[in-house]
Design goal:
135 residues; alpha+beta
Length: 135
């Protein structure tokens, strides 16, 4: 039965691809209006089991329209692939890059808002009081 967890090799290559993408984006080599002035964080790159597809999760910082940035990155995927090739030269095949919007930051802020809500705070205070009475 195959494991659904990524292999060590997938994780290692994904991290190398993440670094290569981040450095290339910092240099501002992509001439696309949707990307030119954007600061883009590459939070994770997931490699397919055969290492031929690299799915990069990106978060445009300070940008309202993350979809436009992701669309621009996907339009420029072949150019990006060529620019990161030297950093990934140990690979037999250069992966095809696909870009997705990283929504994990949104999830973190939703959880944070929930934890700070009056209802949760009240429940947490009740738990603290219960512990104090049992001592």
């Amino acid at each position: 039965m195959p494991s659904s967890a990524p292999s060590q090799r997938q994780l290692r290559v994904g991290e190398q691809a993440r670094h290569a993408l981040s450095e290339m984006l910092q240099r501002g080599e992509i001439l696309d209006p949707a990307i030119e002035n954007a600061v883009i964080s590459v939070s994770e790159v997931r490699m397919s089991p055969d290492l031929k597809i690299a799915t990069a999760f990106v978060a445009p910082l300070g940008q309202q329209d993350g979809k436009a940035v992701v669309d621009a990155l996907n339009r420029n995927a072949r150019f990006i692939r060529g620019r990161v090739t030297p950093a990934l030269r140990q690979m037999k095949y250069m992966p095809e890059f696909r870009f997705r919007l990283d929504t994990s930051f949104d999830n973190f802020s939703k959880i944070d808002r929930l934890l700070r809500s009056p209802e949760v705070a009240r429940d947490l205070d009740a738990d603290d009081n219960d512990e104090g009475q049992s001592n």
